[in-house]
Write a structure and sequence with these properties.
Length: 309
């Protein structure tokens, strides 16, 4: 009996050990194949194939979780690279005209100077063109800095209602001089706290108001309003102007994009791009809706508790 038991335990131990080794080898082989897939994807990305993604098994294990996060990072990287390519193409296209115009003005100035004529008009025009080009590049740089998150260190809890009230006071006279009206709608003695950068919020609302003033005809009524919806603070800019066609509403946030109807008005096509960048930095969502007639721009910020609370 002792011999039989010992032999049984011996064979059982050998069988279990062999099964464990085989199972371990199989598991290691599967893990190695998946790691090889991750390595191959990284090699493809390093060679410029930004559409390469790590294959997922769908079983929800740790490797799948890490792979999904890496794929999300690759999606973001691909979107940023595509955006940079698009921006480069837009810059080359949209700045070609002012640069050619600047060159023509300078050539006219050179010709006039050679014949002894006054070139003050040409120099004034050249200065205006160069300032416009510099403003375009400055706006692109600000958007890049905001999208990189460089300004988040300045975030504090603040009352966005105070920002809206300040913008309303600053632009009320500007709107009146332009034949339009600007009003604010705020609940008295109410604070609307969000976490953000006051200067960037001022810039965002200024761009929205200036956009309405620039593209709306005389007699347009513009309203700034703040309200609460569940756990969000809504900041709205309403007008009863011509609005934006539904098919163009996503495109207007692209850099240097301009509607056909606005190409004859001053501007670089970067105002709403900066608005979108500021909203994204604050974790806010921005939507464009019909005001029947006109446009409603709604920015929804995550609400925070009062600092005093």
């Amino acid at each position: 009996m002792e011999t039989i038991v010992l032999m049984s335990f011996g064979w059982g131990t050998l069988f279990i050990t062999g099964l464990a080794i085989a199972g371990g080898a199989l598991l290691a082989s599967r893990v190695q194949r998946r790691l090889d897939g991750i390595a191959a994807t990284m090699v493809d990305v390093s060679h410029g194939r930004l559409d390469a993604r790590i294959p997922l098994t769908g079983n929800g294990d740790d490797i799948d979780g890490v792979s999904a996060q890496v794929n999300a990072a690759l999606d973001r990287l691909s979107a940023l690279v595509d955006g940079m390519r698009e921006v480069s193409a837009n810059i080359a296209h949209d700045l070609k005209t002012p640069l050619n115009r600047l060159q023509m003005i300078l050539e006219q100035a050179v010709d006039k100077a050679a014949s002894g004529e006054d070139v003050s008009t040409e120099l004034t025009d050249a200065r205006a063109e160069s300032l416009q080009i510099n403003e375009t590049f400055d706006a692109l740089l600000r958007i890049a800095q905001i999208e990189a998150g460089a300004r988040k260190a300045r975030f504090v809890d603040l009352d966005v209602g105070g920002v809206v009230d300040t913008i309303g006071e600053v632009y009320a006279d500007v709107a009146e001089d332009d034949g339009k009206s600007l009003s604010t709608s705020l609940v008295p003695e109410t604070k609307w706290y969000i976490h953000g950068d006051r200067d960037l919020l001022m810039q965002m609302l200024s761009n929205l108001v200036e956009n309405a003033l620039r593209h709306c005809p005389p007699g347009t009524a513009i309203e700034l309003a703040v309200s609460r919806q569940d756990d969000s603070i809504l900041v709205r800019v309403r007008d009863n102007g011509p609005g934006i066609p539904p098919g163009e509403r996503e495109k207007v946030f692209e850099r240097l994009y301009r509607l056909d109807s606005s190409r004859t008005t001053p501007g670089s096509g970067l105002g709403l791009s900066l608005v979108k960048a500021v909203a994204d930095l604050h974790g806010a969502t921005i939507t464009l809706e019909d005001n029947n007639p006109g446009l409603v721009v709604s920015v929804s910020f995550p609400a925070v508790k009062s600092p005093a609370a």
